Amino acid sequence: MIELLVFDVDGCLTNGQISYSENGDEIKSFNVKDGLAISSWIRLGKKAAIITGRRSKIVERRAKELGINYLFQGVHNKLEVLEGICKDENLKLENVAAIGDDLNDYNMLSSVGRSFTPADGSEYIRELSSVVLYAKGGEGAVREMIETIIKDNGLEDAFLKIWKS
Length: 165
Fold this sequence. Notes:
Elements: E1 4-7, H1 9-13, E2 19-20, E3 26-27, H2 32-43, E4 47-51, H3 57-66, E5 70-72, H4 78-89, E6 96-99, H5 106-109, E7 114-117, H6 123-128, E8 131-132, H7 141-152, H8 156-164
Parallel strand pairs: 1-4, 1-6, 4-5, 6-7, 7-8
Antiparallel strand pairs: 2-3
């Protein structure tokens, strides 16, 4: 059973584009549908983590809004960070599902119980992932990932009950 979801940011939670304002401020866009699915997952009592290679105050804000349990930015070795989270949570890597789209996600994705990549993920990542999603990064890929896990783990009734009351 999957207990922890791990998200890459650029190319998964966003479309991978980074825009800068005239003042040099970084701008990222997140998908609201992804956010609702993440917060619903957490309301089920499950864990979520963001492990990303870049640093951004925007990502920090988004993680806080969604109630994401773990946020690690500026990470070179994502698998090493994930192993630390698993140790803290007393989880095995087989109880983890992760989504990534590029080569810096390779080791992490090849080590978890379920690996996902958006439709526009790197060819190398698509080849190793358990599931290649129909949606592109930033366009509902994370929502699709979560709904797949909810169905596969028999959690649909509990997931929908959050919104039926």
